[in-house]
Amino acid sequence: MSRSLLCLAIVAALTVPGQAQQTAPPAPQPQPPKPTSQLDSLRTVAESSDYRTTSTYAEVLGFMTIVDNASPNIRVISYGTTYEGRMMPLAVVGTGLKDASAASVKASGKLRVHIQGNIHAGEVEGKEAAQVLLREFAQGKHADWLETMVFLITPIFNADGNERFSLTNRGVQNGPINGQGTRANGQNININRDFMKLETPEGRAFAKLWNDYDPYVGMDLHTSDGSTHGYHLTYSPPLNPNTNAGIMSIMKDEWFPFVTKAIREKYKWETYYYGNASHPGGGRGGRGGGQGAPATPPAAQPQAPAAPAGPRAWGTFEHVPRFHNNYVGMRNRFALLSEAYAYATFKDRILATNHFIEEAMNFAHQNVAKIRTAVGSADREALAGKTHATRAQIRNGAMIEILMGEVEDEKNPINGRNMNRRKDVIKPEQMTDRLWFEPTTTETVPTEYYIPASATKALELLRAHGVQMRKTTVATKGLEQFAITANTQRAATNSIDTGSHGLRSLDGAWAATDVAAPVGSFAVAMNQRLARLAFYLLEPKSDDGLTAWNYLDDVLGVEGAKAYPILRRR
Ligand SMILES: [Zn+2]
């Protein structure tokens, strides 16, 4: 199965996008295993170009074909189709699997880990590092990991953006000097703001992959062109304050400290939580952080408190689950975001990304039981009656030591433009910790929500996320209704982060009502595995839910709308 899909992939890569799926694949040819010598001489495009160039889509598929053919433990299949019709390749890496299906992977009983590269196709280090990792698996390395884990590796998530090569896509990033792809996908949407609204086929494919394979761990690999700091790589766990506390404590107290210590001891490189230094002199040498400051703040976002005068602050990005790491946390799973440092050399950035993956997976291998237990207890946590955030802001914490750095100018020899080049300088500085969020508005989690059958767009989105629903057979009374006191819509800016949306924001309050949910409504119980995510989608004040993304505008977009159309039971 994997061979024929790869043939299809090659056809897809070489034909006009959009027509690829209509092209019949050639009959699969039996292929003998590649001799070991070919695998040993297999190089990524980055390696073979002396780190001047990153791989095209076709080159990634070619590389994946070779490792698939060379190793019985690697199976490459498709997990979706991009906006422009490119097959999205997934390498399933595991021992003793019958095939690459979700059923076989789950039947293995091993810890499932998803490693994703290239969500932002100007940030190609994850794509290159994932290929290095696949070659290492094909060469028989990491055999210990395969005793406890199965890997789902998607090196080139934003394949369409990858093909829009330009030398100017990444500002003053230090190469690759022959250019790289774009931040947005083929629809001009930032996939790393799409995890709640799911408007991209790539985001939809991700949600299906996660519903089918249900990984315990998700890694999302980026490159940051923000502050000139002293780290080779920065990282982040989920940031939403509603994330399960057990998952957060393992990430903050054990997993990231383990990775930082191991990379320091083995490679003498520093790593820390992702952030940018506040001005003055914040040293933002690029166009903004790798996670990117939003073009417009999310609707319903109260003004965050200003950083205190005096010392600078080290501030992270956003808490909203439209970002990969926050979304994965909302699904009760472990998320590790990485940001290679854009002003280190391309070679060092790929190395740093591989080191990060390797040490993170060493921890996972040693802590399989702990990770599995934490996920299980997060899934079983009873949320009803608890207080959860519907909006949040960064809180000012204690002082922390941040390692700042310096850069110097370097000319790109291809086009003469200026790039930043990391200098081997580390300047410790005490800064205010602005890495974590606190709620600004909260709600008590109910036991059940009731969605009218007429809210077809909302229902379809909930199904795509994997939220379980039950169609009611009797009219349901004894519920609460949300009375609207303020209903505002931000003007659409057509940025890649929000697309054509004008984000909507509601204020008001829930109160007991005589209104019944009619027969045929869809009930969403809050004792299901995805309750945490469902709450953030369904609560009317949520800054990243159905209201914000206009999924209920049939009702809420009407002048004088008095009540939120979804009811709930306390
Ligand atoms: Zn990024």
Any overview of this molecule?
This protein is of the alpha/beta class and 570 residues long. It folds into two domains: 36-392, Zn peptidases (Aminopeptidase, 3-Layer(aba) Sandwich); 446-569, no CATH class. The protein is built from 16 helices and 20 strands. The strands form five sheets. An eight-stranded mixed β-sheet has the order 1-2-4-3-5-10-6-7, with helices on both faces. The protein has a four-stranded mixed β-sheet with strand order 8-9-13-12, with no helix packed on it. The chain has a four-stranded antiparallel β-sheet with strand order 16-19-15-20, covered by helices on one side. Helix 6 crosses helix 12 and helix 10 (245-267) runs antiparallel to helix 13. The protein is globular. Residues 8-25, 281-289 and 293-302 have low confidence and may be disordered. Bound molecules: zinc ion. Zinc ion binds next to loops.
